[in-house]
Amino acid sequence: MHSQPSLYFSALLQVTISLSKVELSVGESKFFTCTAIGEPDNIDWYNPQGEKIVSSQRVVVQKEGVRSRLTIYNADIEDAGIYRCQATDAKGQTQEATVVLEIYQKLTFRDTVSPQEFRQGEDAEVVCRVTSSPAPVVSWLYRNEEVTTIADNRFAVLANNNLQILNINKSDEGVYRCEGRVEARGEIDFRDIIVIVNVPPAITLLQKSFNATADRGEAITLFCRATGSPPPEISWYRNGKLIEENEKYMLRGSNTELTISDIKNIDAGPYICNAKNKAGNDKKQTYLQVFVQPQIIQLKNETTVENGKATLICEAEGEPIPEITWKRAIDGITFSEGNKSPDGRIEVKGQHGKSSLHIKDVKLSDSGRYDCEAASRIGGHQKSMYLDIEYAPMFVSNQTMYYSWEGNPINISCEVLANPSASVQWTRGKLVLPVKNTTHLKTYSTGRKLILEIAPTSDSDFGRYNCTATNRIGTRYQEYTLGQADVPSNPYGVRVLELSQTTAKVLFNKPDSHGGVPIHHYQVDVKEVASETWKIVRSHGVQSNNLEPNTTYEIKVAAVNGKGQGEYSKIEIFQTLPVREPSPPSIHGQPGSGKSFKISITKQDDGGAPILEYIVKYRSVSISGSRDHIILEHLQWTMGYEVQITAANRLGYSEPTLYEFSMPPKPNIITDTLFNGLGLGAVIGLGVAALLLILVVTDVSCFFVRQCGLLMCITRRICGKKSGSSGKSKELEEGKAAYLKDGSKEPIVEMRTEDERITNHEDGSPTLCQGGEVQAVLPCPPQPTGPPCPGTRSPISAPALSAARAQPWPQWDMDPHAAAAPSSACCIQGLEGEGEALPALSGSQLHQSLPLVLLCRSWLTFKPAGNHSRQRQATALPPSFSAPAPADTSPPQSSRPCSGS
C-alpha cells in the first residue's frame, strides 16, 4: 500500500518523494525518487539515523537536475526506518519529504553447521541460529520427539534458541532437528543437525611390566590396547622420543603391539604408550625388566710378599646385581661377603657387584688359585686369578747329617724353595766350592737342588759344609755335616716265634747304632745243633724257611749296611715242630649247572706234609690233595644237604669240616621258548625223538634194576616166569644197590626220595636202611698192604651178601667190625638200620671186579636183636649159608693207611 507524498510549502521550494511507505523483504532491492520544485541548489538523502547518505556499493544516491534517486540493493533488516530527502536553495532555505521503509525477514538459518561434535562428559550446546521478522518460534526434536517432552532434565532450549545437553554421553549421539515458525505468516522451516559425541581414549595394558633376558637373542612384545571414539591413534615413546619401525622395533596391529628384537641390557626401562583422538589423549607406561647374566669384568692376578697384605678384587655386572663369593682352590674353602676365616686373617667386603678379599699376615699356604663366582637367579659366571707370594729362600730337607767313608762317594743335596728363584752355592769356610784343581769335590744342579758330591780321600774331607741361597727377599744359610760311617752294632733280644714243621719266625730288636749308614738288610745264619756248618740267609724279612721237621737249630742275626756287616747277636736255639695231621680245610660252595653243586676247598695248615687227598663224606670220595673243589651231582631240587670234608696226609686225618647247603627250586622251562619259530614238521620230529629217548632210558633202567629189558620185564609180568638171573635181579631190586662201572673209579649213585626209601620189596621185606639218606662210596687209593681203611667197615663179597640178603630180613645184619682181607678193593662206608646180626664174611670171598656200593645215611651200625654184642659170629644164619672164618677180628685202626690194591 502506498501513501500520498507529503507536501512541504515554502516560498520558493517544494519537495516530494514518489512513495511515502514501502515494505521490502530482506534481500530485495528498491529505489526512491525525490523531486524539488523551485530552484534548489542541493538535494540530499538522510538515513534513519539522521546521517547524510553517501553513495556506497549497496546504497546509491543519484542526482538528476531537480530529482534525486535513492537505491537500496539487497535490503537488510538494519535498513528499515524513515529516510528524508532535503532540498536547499540559494538562500539557504530547505524543504524535505520522507518515506518509511519497512523490511521483514523470512525464516533464515545462519551459521548452523552439521555435524556438531562434542566431548563426552561436557555440557554441550547445539547451535541453531534462525532469524525472521518477526522473531520466529524455535523448537528441537530428537527421534521425532520434542526434547522438552523427554523425561530428562539434561535437555533444555536456551534463550538464543540453541539446545543445551548437560553431561553429554555417547548415547546422546544422533540427529537433532531445529525447527523455526513465524505464526503471523504461517512460515516454517528446519535444519537437521548431526550431533557426534567423541569419547577420549582409555588405554588398557595387558601387563605393567615385562621380563626378558639379555644377550640370548630373545625378542619380546609389549601390548597396548585403547578404546575411544573416534578410534584413537597409538604411538610408542622411549626416553621422550617417538619409536619408529626399524630393524630393532616392529609395530603391528595399528601400533598396538611393539616387538623389541635381540634384547640387550640397554633396552631396559619404561616404554610409553600414547593414544590420541579428537576427544583427547591418554598415555600409560609399561616397564621392561631386562635380566642380564652375571659377567665378571674385573679380576687380575696379584703378587705380595710373605707376612705382608693382599687385596683381591672381583667386580661383576648383571641384572639383578649378582652376589660374589670367593673359593680357595687349594682346599675348597669358600669366603662370602661379611665372612672371616677362623684365624681372622681373611675377610671379604663388597657391595653393588664389587667384592674384595683382604688377606693380612700372608702365609705361603695362601698362595695359589682363587675362584671368583658371580651368581644370580639368572645364572653365574666364574673366573680365576692367582695369588703369587714372594718369600726368602727356605731349605726343604731337615737332613743335615751325612755319613761316608774314605773312597765312598756321597751326594749331599741342598734343595731350596724360593720365590723369586734363588741363587745357591756351596761353601766351606771362606771358599766357594768346588775349588779349582780338586777332583774329589763336585757340584751340579738338578731342578731345585744343588748337589755337592764328595769322595773323601782323607780325614780332612769330613766336617762342616755350608749351603747359601739368596734372592731379592733375603738370604738363608744351612750347615751340613759329613761324618765318618761305621758298621752297625749287633741286634739283640733274638727270639723265635710261630714255629711250624718247616718255618720259624724270628723276632729281634734293631741295633742301637746303624753306623751312620742305613741298614739295607739283615743276615740270618742258621744251622742244626749237631752240624758245624752255618747256612747264611740274606733276607729283608725275618722268617726262616725250608727247615726240617722236629729238628733243633741254632740261629744268630747280624745287620749289614753300606760299609759292611756288624757283629752277630747272641745265638738262640729252637726246635721245629714234628709232622702231624693237617688242620681242617676251609670250604664254601655255590650252585653249579643243573643239579650239581660246587664245593670249593681252601687248604689250611698241612701239618708239615703235603695234602695227599680230601675225603668228602657225602660219598666216600677221595680227591687229589692238589684239587681245590669237587662237584656234587645228581642232587634233588630244594633238598637240604650236609657235607663233611676231611683232609688226609701220611700222618692221618684232620677233624671233619661241616658245610650245609640247600638246592634251589627246579627252574621253570617254558615250552613256548623251545618251540617258538619251529615248523609243524620240526615239532613232530622232536616229539618222536623224545618218545624214542624215553623208551631207551626206560629200557636201560629196567635192565639195571631188574636185569632185563623193558619187553622182557613186561613178558615176565604177564607170563609169571623168571629167567635164570632172577635171583640177581631181585637182589638188585631189594638192595637198591648200584655198582661201579668196570674199570671206573666213579660210583653210579642211585637217588631215592623219602617215599622210595621206606617201600618194601616184592617179598615183603623192607629195603636196606629204611629212611636213610643217600651215601656215596669211593674206593681207597692204592696203598701198601695193611690193616683195614681208617674209619671204614669190612668189605663183603657180592655172592655172600646175596646169600644173606635172600633170607628174611630179621635174620641178618652186618657186623661193623668184621675183618678185611689184604686183597680187599673197597672201603664200605655208612650203613645204618635195624635188624638181626649178620656174621662177618672173609675178605677173600670178595669179588674184586664187583665192589659194592650201598645207599645209606651213615656208618653201618645195625643193632642185633636181644642186645647181643656188635662183634660176634652169626648164629642165626640159614642152613644154606656158610661163611668162612674171618681173617682178623680186630677193629680197624684209624691211624694206619688203607690196605688193598
Automatic annotation (TrEMBL):
Signal keyword on record: yes
Any one GO molecular-function label of the UniProt entry: identical protein binding
Domain Fibronectin type-III: residue ranges: 487-579, 581-667
Compartments reported by the entry: Cell membrane
Compositional bias ranges of the Low complexity kind: 874-895
Gene Ontology CC terms: axon; nuclear body; synaptic membrane
Highest taxon of source: Eukaryota
Keywords annotated in UniProt: Cell adhesion, Cell membrane, Disulfide bond, Glycoprotein, Immunoglobulin domain, Membrane, Phosphoprotein, Repeat, Signal, Transmembrane, Transmembrane helix
Stretches the record annotates as Disordered: 785-806, 867-901
Transmembrane segments: 674-697
Membrane topology recorded in Swiss-Prot or TrEMBL: Single-pass type I membrane protein
InterPro entries: FN3_dom (IPR003961), FN3_sf (IPR036116), Ig-like_dom (IPR007110), Ig-like_dom_sf (IPR036179), Ig-like_fold (IPR013783), Ig_I-set (IPR013098), Ig_sub (IPR003599), Ig_sub2 (IPR003598)
Any coiled-coil regions, as ranges: none
Pfam families in alphabetical order: fn3, I-set, Ig_3
PROSITE patterns to which the protein is assigned, alphabetical: FN3 (PS50853), IG_LIKE (PS50835)
Gene Ontology terms: biological process: cell adhesion
Repeat listed as a keyword: yes
Ig-like domain span: 5-100, 105-178, 201-289, 294-388, 393-483
Role according to the record: May play important roles in selective fasciculation and zone-to-zone projection of the primary olfactory axons.
PANTHER family: CTX-RELATED TYPE I TRANSMEMBRANE PROTEIN, NEURAL CELL ADHESION MOLECULE 2
Name recorded for this polypeptide: Neural cell adhesion molecule 2
Protein species of origin: Aquila chrysaetos chrysaetos
Lineage of the species this protein comes from: Eukaryota, Metazoa, Chordata, Craniata, Vertebrata
